[in-house]
Design a protein that fits this description.
alpha/beta, globular, Spore Coat Polysaccharide Biosynthesis Protein SpsA, Chain A, 373 residues, 37% helix, 3-stranded mixed beta sheet
Length: 373
Amino acid sequence: MASFRWRLTLLVCGIIVLMIVLNHTISTGVSKTFDTMAKYEKQIVFDDHSKHSNVVPEVTKNYYTSTTRTVNTSKTVKKTSYPLTLMSPYLINNPSICKTPNKLDFVVIVHTSTDHFNRRSIIRRTWGNLNILRNRGFRIVFFFGLSNSQKTQTMLENESTVYGDIVQGIFLDSYHNLTHKGVLTYRWLCDFCSNVDMVVKVDDDMFVNIFYLMEYYLPKFRNTTRHVMCQTRPKGTSPIMREKSKWQVSENQFKSMTHYPVTYCNGYFVLISIDIIRQLYKASFITPFFWVDDVYLYGLLPDKIGNVKFTSIAANLTLQQETGMQCYTGNTTCKYLASYAEKNGYMESMWYASLKMYATVAQKFIVKELLIE
């Protein structure tokens, strides 16, 4: 019996020693990987054939805050936050949305919230109605994060079953998590919808004049590369809000700066050429997380990959919904490509007005029996 206990003790000690050695080896390997990555961060070439394209940070399971990467050096240990959605799973996904034998003209990416069921329904009935616009090659996808309500989650799963046009990531859906949502859209486009000419990103409270988009913007945009169209905020012109407010930025971010050092877009409506989507997604692996999504998604990431052309289309966009309504319901052709339409009934009214206004254009794209007389 004493001999058996002695052998058992030796076996346990051996296992402990082996675990210590393995842990040291793994930790050393991870540390070296991140040390190497830190050296290459400024040297990565953002194309599909980058020799560093497989170097990625470790993603934690803390899906509600942010992904961190630890970089060990001889002097310091730093932790930097990165978007949660770099590699985290999809909770709801519809990967076949863009599957088609033919190339699509464009895909509309709608940033929405979990409880905005009515807004999504209105979009599906109006300017995002795939049944009416079945003669054109476009798709629409709604993106959001997690809900705190099990009832809402069940409704979202039912919505996915019925419409098959939603994608849900594993991050809490909130105002300060919009950057996670945006990176998820870039990743999803790379994985499931790269066969398009143009990406249209829009918020769910915006009306989009789909006929104006298809007739005038798509032909112009189709022949461009490395291009972004939006309401631009030129480098050095947008103040960084330090005071306590909805847009407050910590003193630890953009230290000693009073204005954002990059050109970026107001993100309520953005056109992006498909050729840079994968590069923007890759850039998010080495661009530390910043919660102001407009600055991060349409400023810091394009700046990181470089050679991106911004064109301002502010004259064709409005956040004044009364102005937009007057334009669409007036006697002249309205040139607003997108208009804020949060008020009850405004999106439907703008849709019917655009059908009348662009009847000649609409005949090319929709079934004739659905045209308004």
